[in-house]
Amino acid sequence: MICVFRIPGLIASLSLTLYTFMILLVMNLFNVTLTLPGLAGIILSVGMAVDANVVIFTRIKEELATGASVKQSVKAGFHNALSAIIDGNVTTLIAALVLGIFGTGTIKGFAITLAIGIVLSVFTALVISQMVLNALVTLGVTDVKYFGKAKEPGKVNFVKGGKYCIIASVLVIVIGFCFMPIFAKTKGSALNLSIDFAGGTSITAEFDKAYSLSEAEKDIVPVIAEAAGISEADISVQTVSGTNEIVFKTTELTTQGDDSQLTKVTAALSEKLGATVTNSDNISGSASSDMTRDAFLSVALAAVLMLIYIVIRFKDVKFGVSAVLALCHDVAMVFVLYILLRLSVGNTCIACMLTIFGYSINATIIVFDRIRENIANAGTKKDYKHIVNLSINQTITRNIYTSLTTFVTIFVLYVMGVAAIKEFAFTLMAGVVIGAYSSICVTGPLWYYFKTGFGKKKDAANGKNSKKAVEKKKTAKAQ
Known about the structure:
It is built from 17 helices and four strands. It has helices at about 1-5, 5-30, 35-65, 70-100, 105-140, 160-185, 195-200, 215-220, 220-230, 260-275, 290-315, 315-340, 345-375, 385-415, 420-440, 445-450, 465-479; strands at about 200-205, 235-240, 245-250, 275-285.
């Protein structure tokens, strides 16, 4: 942020630091339990807080490029960015409220932290950053070199390339889902369901010392995997605060007889680590069918409400439909990774999908906001293809900067986190990349093709007919 936006970037970094303290204080005040989906909500709100600052400061640089003074540019930058920030955060807040009201368990935890994060991120971007930046300008920090100027937007024809990107994405999604019946026959299940969904065995063991989560995964999990003859990936670990006990959840183990898997695990823990197994139970999938149904219904309801909001705000149903389809595209593409790589589908998967659900809609709103603005500035003659290409070229740096900063946040989690966090972070990084790709290559072109009836209707862009109709008119005129 500092390298790209200079003084405003420094202010944004300070505001984001304040934002981090504020969200921790609020969560502590309301005694919010921080779960993995809750952490996902915080990550998403951090990404949106960064995004709000990027949008504002990009607008400031664009104003400076027109020759406006720093003071005028700062004022115009916040004003011009306001609609995109509000629309992006309101759509995500709608999703958070619906998930919080109708969701259960981990979904509700995600919604609570996301809602708190959205409110605080908007406050820090539109209030704190603006107050500090205005104060610096008033104190005489008005040299353009401290802010930078925007470069001329590129002239890449995203509409033309978008057609091929959409086709490629559809093929990848279809091929990915076609592997589900193949895996069902060859591997016994279409998806690699985790214990959360498939059930398994819970083992509680007490050790002679307290192990951290990372130590338990490194030193104890291999012992259990070897004794039971299962993969380390099939074992999850949960430490019990204030005790030396650790709860291990595995795929269902045999329990009958002296040669059962559970007996071998108990013996291995005792002989190699001096641990005592205090409890063991076979458990059913904790993510019941009711919870799964509630998750899908709440997400579907959130998508419908976001669609309605976008249609009202943008006064065009095609914007809403395109946004929801792009959202489905991003979620489906990440789910294809879960299918092909046989990643564990459980609560971590739910957290990842919900995060991408909120993150992607925000990126889409930024592009659509610029399209809406350029349409308003075009007057009576509207070349929609030119408008879409111009809008994407104008917002492409924003997409790259926001995706990069969010990616870095998640990458740190991947490097420093334990096994459950690593899998979550890996799929989330993929989601950020896919979201950036769709906002640049899919969203705008998809709206354009809906707007022009996939080239069959007249292109209101110039107020002229399609190419064939134009040629016919020229021939008639010549005759």
